[in-house]
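From the pipeline queue, job 12 of 40. The input is one protein chain; the requested action is below.

Action: predict structure.
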Amino acid sequence: MSRRPAAQRFDGAAVIITGASSGLGAALALAFTEAGANVVLAARNEDRLNEVARRCVEAGGQPLVVPADVTVPADCEALVAAAVERLGRLDVLVACAGLSMWARFDELSDAEVLRRVMDVNYWGLVNPTRFALPHLKAGSGVLAAISSVQGKLGVPYHSGYAASKHAVQGFCDSLRMELAGSGVGVLTVLAHWIRGTNLRQYALGSDGLPRGDHAAAHGSGAVPLEKITRRILNAIARRRRMIFIPRWMRLFTWLSELAPPLTDRLIRKRVNREATGTHRSA
């Protein structure tokens, strides 16, 4: 018996997941496999991809591993070609590859930090989408962009990350309108901080290097992986346009229009708690 509701079944669906070697991407790969999909796993680290693939095989799947760098158009073209050659079609592209930062803009030693974050988060969505789109059109498929609530709001210490996610939101909103009537669904997932990923450890600091063990621990408000994967699969199955995870984060976007100074103070307070470790333990 399936552990998931019928609305979340993806039996036989062909699904590409970028950023599938760890964190949310790996969790989505396993969730899609358990829901009956045929998954194609993409990321730069082949060893980690193979470990995720092993878990998918244990769950009854037959995953395809395609090492690829989403910032390189040729890699993305080869990724989509390999997926279509193996599976004959493409039903869902989940753009999950992501890179964060944790540094004040005025303390950056090199603007390359911002460029790298934009390359991964924005171009890492645009590049695979370019090559996947003809196949998504052919099968009335879905593009799911794993974004952030920072696609709607600015956050201190995350200027480059928030900028990249605003770009993702603008791209997806525009693309959705361009594709009206094509049968292609475009979903943006505006998530809060997620517990159970290594995004913070890999987040770039002011020196341009990953923060590693210096990364701040998540507070109690961080979303568990199990919850976010369940909601993402459900949103794709229902062909939603946009979801906030958790749902109450939408209130911040409304509040930012009604009372901008208050919103700024609330966000600064929450982020400062994360930075100083004064939050309650998760």
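Job complete. The longest helix spans residues 112-138.
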